[in-house]
Amino acid sequence: MDKNNIKEIAQQFAFEGTILDxxxxxxxxxxxxxxxxxxxxxxxxILQRKNHHVFPDVPAMMDNIARVTAxxxxxxxxxxxxxxxxxxxxxxxxxxxxxxxxxxxxWAAMLLIEDAVTHAxxxxxxxxxxxxxxxxxxxTMLADFDEPLVEVIxxxxxxxxxxxxxxxxxxxxxxGRKAQLSKEIAWIESRRAKMLxxxxxxxxxxxxxxxxHNDTKLSNILFDRxxxxxxxxxxxxxxxxxxxxxxxxxxxxxxxxxxxxxxNLDNVSxxxxxxxxxxxxxxxxxxxxxxxxxxxxxxxxxxxxxxxQTLRFLMDYxxxxxxxxxxxxxxxxxxxxxxxxxxxxxxxxxxxxxxxCIEANK
Length: 362
Ligand SMILES: Nc1ncnc2c1ncn2[C@@H]1O[C@H](COP(=O)(O)OP(=O)(O)O)[C@@H](O)[C@H]1O
Ligand SMILES: [Mg+2]
Known about the structure:
It contains 11 helices and 10 strands. The protein has helices at residues 3-10, 58-78, 125-141, 159-172, 182-189, 192-203, 244-254, 272-286, 292-318, 331-348, 350-359; strands at 19-25, 32-38, 45-50, 90-91, 100-101, 106-111, 209-212, 221-223, 229-232, 239-242. Strands 1, 2, 3, 4, 5 and 6 form a 6-stranded antiparallel beta sheet that branches. Strands 7-10 form a two-stranded antiparallel ribbon. Helix 7 packs across helix 9. The longest helix has 27 residues, at 292-318. Residues 25, 27-31, 33, 46, 88, 110, 112-113, 116, 118, 219-220, 233-234 line the site of adenosine-5'-diphosphate.
């Protein structure tokens, strides 16, 4: 984006100090992120162009973030922490809105948290443990949040909704691939009832709906120089659902010993070591605020989320590859097989996973 245009956008926000420079910050996948540096002692800022293809209702999304960060701020202050570093601070525009619309894109701004460290991948047990701590702490601080939040992505991790799409995809068989996929379709169908049973516990309240982050990758946690968790960022996807989903999704992405599209299925498995590390970190922060039912089903959430992802890859293949970007014709089928292998590995280790989730940090 042009320097002058971006400066004009930055000037819509109520920043302190005079803007010195605006530079793009790599890393992010969804939004375009810039660092805004100011003169002298004034704080520096983050300016983000929000991806409104992914998020159709940016104003509602910003309202969600405002509610969640206000709650977190009260907790941090009550605990004597530093509210400028331990929670995201949104910056309003001069006309008191949480976003600026430039006629084409939505923009939002927040304080830059200085000297923060991020990690791209959780490739050591220690980082997995710290990632678990980060999300666990986030959830615990939000365990008593009781405000409404807008569902920014419809049906997220709702398997009943996925099955509606799935049944439709099978019925239409758009790419004419269904006939060759009886084995893979059976993988999905044979587990349908079990997965619906899990989701029913969310629907009927046995598993409470709480604030979920929904993008728990390690790079969304800021650490300080000593390696302690500062805060969780990237709150675009906060919604109300079972917080077990955050755990399950983290396990799915942290613990795979292979690649998501590994052609060699022997590479793919769930690392029990990384699972234990993540679970221990998570439960160290979150154990005391989980209900007994949440604890009992915590390990299952990893299977649930991995199953859902297997279904989504296969469904996209059946649909003719309209959702996930593919690098070669059978890419989504390769992903389906690799994700299914991960699911099998979790199923094989399920009893041990469950024992860890029930016993750790009691
Ligand atoms: N308030 C902040 N303070 C410091 N760094 C930040 C802040 N917000 C974002 N970042 C940095 O920018 C990167 C991208 O921001 P993020 O909100 O995660 O966007 P995306 O949705 O594109 O991943 C983060 O990984 C982090 O390194
Ligand atoms: Mg991010």
